[in-house]
Amino acid sequence: MKKIAVLTTGGDAPGMNPAIRSVVRYGIGRGLEVMGVFRGWWGLINEELKVLSHRSVSGIIGQGGTILKTARCVEFRSREGQDRAYETIKKNNIDGLVVIGGNGSFTAAHEFYKQYGIPCVGIAASIDNDVNGLDYTVGTDTAINTALDAIDKIRDTATSMERIFVVEVMGRGSGFIALTVALAGGCEDVIIPEIKVDMENVCHDIVHGNLIGKMSWIVVVAEGAGKADDVANKITEMTGLETRTVVLGHVQRGGRPTAVSRDLALNLGRAAVDCLLAGKKDIALGMASGKIAEVAFETAIMKKELKIEQFYKLVKNLT
Amino acid sequence: MKKIAVLTTGGDAPGMNPAIRSVVRYGIGRGLEVMGVFRGWWGLINEELKVLSHRSVSGIIGQGGTILKTARCVEFRSREGQDRAYETIKKNNIDGLVVIGGNGSFTAAHEFYKQYGIPCVGIAASIDNDVNGLDYTVGTDTAINTALDAIDKIRDTATSMERIFVVEVMGRGSGFIALTVALAGGCEDVIIPEIKVDMENVCHDIVHGNLIGKMSWIVVVAEGAGKADDVANKITEMTGLETRTVVLGHVQRGGRPTAVSRDLALNLGRAAVDCLLAGKKDIALGMASGKIAEVAFETAIMKKELKIEQFYKLVKNLT
Amino acid sequence: MKKIAVLTTGGDAPGMNPAIRSVVRYGIGRGLEVMGVFRGWWGLINEELKVLSHRSVSGIIGQGGTILKTARCVEFRSREGQDRAYETIKKNNIDGLVVIGGNGSFTAAHEFYKQYGIPCVGIAASIDNDVNGLDYTVGTDTAINTALDAIDKIRDTATSMERIFVVEVMGRGSGFIALTVALAGGCEDVIIPEIKVDMENVCHDIVHGNLIGKMSWIVVVAEGAGKADDVANKITEMTGLETRTVVLGHVQRGGRPTAVSRDLALNLGRAAVDCLLAGKKDIALGMASGKIAEVAFETAIMKKELKIEQFYKLVKNLT
Amino acid sequence: MKKIAVLTTGGDAPGMNPAIRSVVRYGIGRGLEVMGVFRGWWGLINEELKVLSHRSVSGIIGQGGTILKTARCVEFRSREGQDRAYETIKKNNIDGLVVIGGNGSFTAAHEFYKQYGIPCVGIAASIDNDVNGLDYTVGTDTAINTALDAIDKIRDTATSMERIFVVEVMGRGSGFIALTVALAGGCEDVIIPEIKVDMENVCHDIVHGNLIGKMSWIVVVAEGAGKADDVANKITEMTGLETRTVVLGHVQRGGRPTAVSRDLALNLGRAAVDCLLAGKKDIALGMASGKIAEVAFETAIMKKELKIEQFYKLVKNLT
């Protein structure tokens, strides 16, 4: 293996840049030439890539987003698109790929590997933390702290004006962000896709709280479990109490990566290069049980089951 | 003058707590007894108030929101409500009021003063910065930095995914927040209530930018000038380009006050006490031309004209 | 078990407050009465403690420091002091203790348990992350992010003025903070107690960097491995280059706990109560292998060996 | 005037980058060619400069430091150095200079203008805020918020451990930062170069505070008024109380510029270009009385008198 390429695909996550930095510098240190592909699979299809030098990744360790840019690429789903991507790889003598992204990226990488046999190692980078077989992915910690910071701010108004707030956080298929920020933010309730919500119960708690003088209330909703407005309307309908909503949205994707997101990204970048050099492929890397873990793409893209009962109960226990 | 009361009304703003701290401690230092009224006018009507000691305001200088809580109070608009508030004032031997809030608060305070003659001094605290005759109010600087922080984060995704974002910030009657964050965030366009927007122009710039390779775009909209979704739909309709929206909402109200918000609040607290002791009344205090300024309530509550042409042009000039 | 007491001892760490909150609320939920002891062991000796209600821990989840205050207590090292502490425990019918702190606290708790048999469970809270048998303690993540934030800022000047900086971070016996922030901050070198430093090597790298145009340099030093000034003087002596120092100091102890610090604290609070109720004692709780782990006090207070070679090498590999 | 050059000199300040961005983009918009000079005067002497395009200043609006780098340049004090700088200017057909920096920079620029007649406009950028005739310079607001953030964190430990802290902040000749953060941080005392300190008084307050139960204390010292260690030793000597020190140092120079620092920088960049085009020269630009102000270099470099009595008294009044 003499030359590898690195690309970022899917939604951007804070920590992609340190991951790129690590792949490039560690790869060069191990004697490889490293190319950067722009806009994910699109760049492979359209031959938008270039050799990255040690210097080219200076000063990006603390930047959100990805200097390689990212995109969701429809063409890559077709055989024709994949063929063109493979041509680029051959033409540029690329011996291995590092794919930084989430489940969608790994599904594509897995298909591509099966079809063309080009060794592919994934770095799990996704704020949703929904890669199966892994406890933690690059970017999650940053997104959680961003959401927590917002909730701390909303708490100021909730307390001062004695109001109910419904705050919608990211997490289409996973309640991980919602659950962790609800706990860390001292939120009174949380609604996630993994657990069926009982709105009567939620509203009962609110009314009961009001009776004993607890007038402010923050309910966190994972986007995959419902819209903030719908939840708020339901609460108003059932309790008669005015309810405000905040949808945190894309703010959660950006920002300077936290220490955890950076260190994980840097370690995974190194591990990805080591894996390729050791002949490993068709696997995603992330953290599991406090260590760097390898998980087959096939496993990684399966539905992740969140072990959260105790966590979920704790939110309610501490309210 | 031996006893004064302080209250916070209207929407909470970061810096209300240091303002309270200053009124209480400086007031005590000048020989006054200071009472804190809870939930704004509602607390006067319902006699929810108590004497605040030097210690009672410890540790609040860096907290968002208001320890006295705040509320919007319908009862106070009626003569009956005002009578009851006045009774509370008489019963508790209160000689003067410090009202911390925005335009709505000052309108009420002005009416109350006219009716009952109780000396009232206002401290301008409103994130919207819409008090006429003043350049800066308590809380504005914090809200702007919160919005800027969010826009910096959104920029990471906008650049990485080469997307158009419409970001809605607070400002019902005023484009102050929108304009300052659009400039500071390097945003490509801004839509404010003070200036009629030409959507064709906005879209022309976007399309032109695309042609010369500028693929990411952030348009800031003041809530008083339109809904983010409407603006985004219009852009998609006119350009065919996918457009995302973020509504920052209540996040902008909370959070630890910045140095500017705290220092202004602390200075205004002192000034308010000095004003009452000097026999001044029916005035609001804020910053104008870099100094603490007094402005009659009657003036303060008039429509504020924003002098922004140069600022607005600069946003476009620097894109 | 009907009544337990909770105390914080040793240096404060961000997350102690959410830990207290969790012990109190979860404890009450499980039918216990929970007393809070002030100023650590000192409060036991001097009978400064009180029952904590559900409400008494409102609003502290996001606050640094500890509402119970903390102290280093010499009297507790004497038999007389311990006797008085035990008397307080008996007099107040306290059946178990939750001790929130680090190694010093656990040493004392272990001795106390051996002597008087009072069940003691520790919650590992120490920014240094030096509790043996545990991967992560409460407060570490916050301290690391604070240090990282400072290093990012120093980087701006290092780059702009093309200067060498030596930055001293906390860690008397452990290089954990130094190593993680050096990696996350993209620092060029790191000096820790666990690995003998070769200053000639450090200086050689700096001079070599200068020759190839790399003019700015940040060296992180753990306080246990040397003084920033000494390191800087050595560098200037050996290279002739001007070198600046920053000692981050106590800034690293405070601040709003991060999501990781809060969630860990909250989970450990619950676990501590569960342990006491299950009859467990003489153990410290923290995180190991991604899960909550129990480790005997005797083990916890032994010298922790940091497995850091790969981490250390990575800092150098990525420079 | 067809071509101008921009340079940053002296210590870096957060906001220099947005100032550069504004000079470049606004300058181009007004039909000028804009060159960037590297490392301040050094770059003029050594002809290190290049034309800056609109794109070259993309993405720097939120970055601390300066992309043009900065240096303190001894050679420029000699006639020979100045001659060489002037040659560069002639050779590159530069018609005017924008100098971004503080007092030292303006002294040099003023001399240079007197000698060679090249029009020079300064943008006041200095965290110390010590430019005479101006109320506010670029970078000050960011530095103050950074220092305040540190003091808020130190407060957590001061309160939890009931300790005295002496915190040294930047400000060689000016107590501006010290005073504003001491007030905003609720600090108990402040020592600045402008006012002779009475250590007996400081210590008396501390001892008195102790007697009435106020056990934690933060004293802010401007670096120009003394060393933190000396002040701490004095306090320990006079009161017998343990005292800790923190020297914030270079952390205060860096970081993402606040909204105020950015907007001021952007407006001054525009104003500097407008001034040069209008034939103005030998002046520095900053904010005074809430507006952009022009002040002759000769005035700007005189000793600035801080009007701070009321501010100073307020710190003590609110303790």
Tell me the major beta sheet of chain A.
Answer: 7 strands, mixed
By secondary-structure content and strand pairing, the structural class of chain A works out as alpha/beta
Shape of chain A: elongated
Helix percent of chain A reads: 40-55%
Mean pLDDT of chain A: 96
Count up the helices of chain A.
11
Task: Tell me what the structure shows.
- The structure is a homotetramer of 319-residue chains.
- Chain A has 319 residues and is α/β, with parallel strands linked by helices.
- The first copy, chain A, folds into 2 domains: 3-139 and 257-300, Rossmann fold, CATH 3.40.50.450; 141-253, 3-Layer(aba) Sandwich (Rossmann fold), CATH 3.40.50.460.
- Chain A is 42% helix and 18% strand.
- In chain A, strands 3-2-1-4-5-10-11 form a 7-stranded mixed β-sheet, with helices on both faces.
- In chain A, helix 4 (103-116) links the parallel strand 4 (96-101) and strand 5 (120-124).
- The radius of gyration of chain A is 22 Å and the shape is elongated.
- The N and C termini of chain A lie far apart (55 Å).
- In chain A, 61% of the residues are buried.
- Chains in contact: A-B, A-C, B-D, C-D.
- The A-C interface holds A 18, 21-22, 25-26, 29, 59, 61-62, 135, 141, 144-145, 148, 152, 155, 159, 180-181, 183-186, 256, 258-260, 262-263, 266-267, 270, 287-291, 311, 314, 317-318 and C 18, 21-22, 25-26, 29, 59, 61-62, 135-136, 141, 144-145, 148, 152, 155, 159, 180-181, 183-186, 256, 258-260, 262-263, 266-267, 270, 287-291, 311, 314, 317-318.
